Amino acid sequence: MQVRRLFTHPGTGDLIGMESRARTYPGLLAHLIKLRDHTCRTPFCIVTIRHIDHIRPHATGGETTERDGQGLCARCNYLKEHPDYTVTGDAGETTTSTGSLVATSHPPSPPGLPPPTRHTPNAPSSTSSGSRTSTEKPAELRAQ
Question: What angle do CA 35, 108, 20 make, to 5 degrees?
Fold first, then answer.
């Protein structure tokens, strides 16, 4: 008997992750990533997903998980193997860089709720007590 762990969003019960011990993305996990990403995750590319691959390469310790997987078109998947091309991040935010060009991509929001892989506006802030959020005015402007 084979056991697979499924991970759901605590608020909605939506499936957000699956465990895999394979090097490549198996059927249901690949399908989950295709549903999450819709099109190629490379910034400025809107081509149909043809490959599911690791954000952090498997050879350097990347795990076969929903958080380390991304949907890519064939061209972008082969391009990311170029030595001058770097992809970092996770499923919530992927940063692609080559030379001085840096771009970030996020998966599209599902209908209804924001994706659980992004920061939500009502979540507690992780800033220290001495810092301020981007919406607060500096003390010298509040006094006026």
Answer: 40
- d(Cα 101, Cα 135) in Å, to the nearest integer? 29
Vertex 93: Cα angle to 105 and 21 (nearest 5): 115
Please give the DSSP secondary-structure letter assigned to residue 24: S
What pLDDT digit, counting tens, does each position of 33-70 carry?
898 888 999 988 999 999 999 998 888 888 888 888 99
Amino acid (one-letter) located at 54:
H
Rounded CA gap, 51 and 79, in Å? 12
Rounded Cα–Cα distance for residues 34 and 129 (Å): 40
Three-state DSSP at 89 gives: strand
DSSP H or E run through 82: none
Phi, psi of 105 (to 5 degrees): -130, 155
What is the C-alpha to C-alpha distance for residues 46 and 143, in angstroms, rounded to an integer?
Answer: 48
Q: Is the pTM of this model over 0.85?
A: no
Residue 16's CB is within 10 A of a number of other CB atoms, namely 19
How many CB atoms are closer than 10 A to CB 11? 9
